[in-house]
Known about the structure:
Layout: H1 46-65, H2 73-76, H3 100-126, E1 132-139, H4 145-151, E2 161-165, H5 171-174, H6 180-184, E3 192-196, H7 205-208, H8 214-217, H9 220-233, E4 236-244, H10 247-259, H11 269-275, H12 278-292, E5 299-303, H13 307-325, H14 336-344
Parallel strand pairs: 1-3, 1-4, 2-3, 4-5
Helix pairs in contact: 3-13
Adenosine monophosphate binds next to helix 7.
Amino acid sequence: MAKGAKKKTGKDVTSADGGGTIPASEVAEHGALPDPKVNSDDELTGKAAKKADKKRKKAEKARKDGAVKQVPWSQVLRVGSGFSLLGLDTGSTPNFAGDKDAGEELMGELQSRLGDLQERLYAESKGGGGRSVLLIIQGMDTSGKGGIMRHVVGAVDPQGVDITSFKAPSPEEKRHPFLWRIRRALPTPGDIGVFDRSHYEDILIVRVHDLLPRTTWSRRYAQINAFEREVVKGGTTVVKVMLHISSDEQKARLTERLEREDKHWKYRPADVDERAHWAEYMQAYQAALDKTSTDHAPWFVVPADQKWYARLAVTNLLLEHLEAMDPQWPAADFDVEAEKARLALTP
Ligand code: AMP
Ligand code: MG
């Protein structure tokens, strides 16, 4: 697709011929849709080409008529009032009717658009722009946070990306308020900052394991909301994603880690102990979603039992936020024509 061709429309976030995004009119049904994929026109000749052309024209017309509105992923996956983690099928693929192959096929195009927008954001900051993005990834052990870092974030220019993994706080970090280490890791203008775990651990693991008195952690929801409001005001678009897996899926993934020698390094015996607290974790996550999904920084919950889907969803979420930001190439701070003339005169 041409660079920026689908910017700012709010619909058609994923192209209708892109292999599986569900049109708005179908979204409530979640039924299997016919594969809307059309082979690249220039590969086709004669009858097939005519047919493909007709199909494309029809799709275009339908789009113009508004009959095939694409639903933004940010709308479908957003946590609104009444949202229930327990009510969400972790194996489902909201907003996508295609299978794994179709999903993976789509990734290439999405990643190149992501790369383009990231470069624009980075360039904009070189021209004095102050905006940035913060992608926060939360999820239970084995939920696929590492895969998001490698496959989604890893696809953009490392120059403009800043990943921070938050572990249990160090003695020094413990001497400071819980947001201290978070503030220090915020993205600078032009960057996409990514948090692999975050300040949300301070109301998740801390709550589940009583690491601090209730009076301390219960104040943190409001503190987090105020903090994020400030971050957003400062020009950072905050995208908060929970990768939601089932307890069964975690068991399967831990089993695989034990069975494969090349996965042993990922396994910690403590992961099994944590499973005993699954229900409490779900409660703690639900409370976090209820109390901190705000207008300025809403939560998105991504069903993550299928890794390919989670990656597709997070890529689309990131893309949509960047598209809405619409970063601009900075104007040259020199006289382009004069420079052309000067360059032409050189040997
Ligand atoms: P991993 O993401 O598998 O490398 O594990 C990091 C560990 O650090 C997890 O067990 C987290 O729960 C833990 N962790 C991260 N942030 C905090 C925090 N603020 N307080 C306590 N433990 C934390
Ligand atoms: Mg772990």
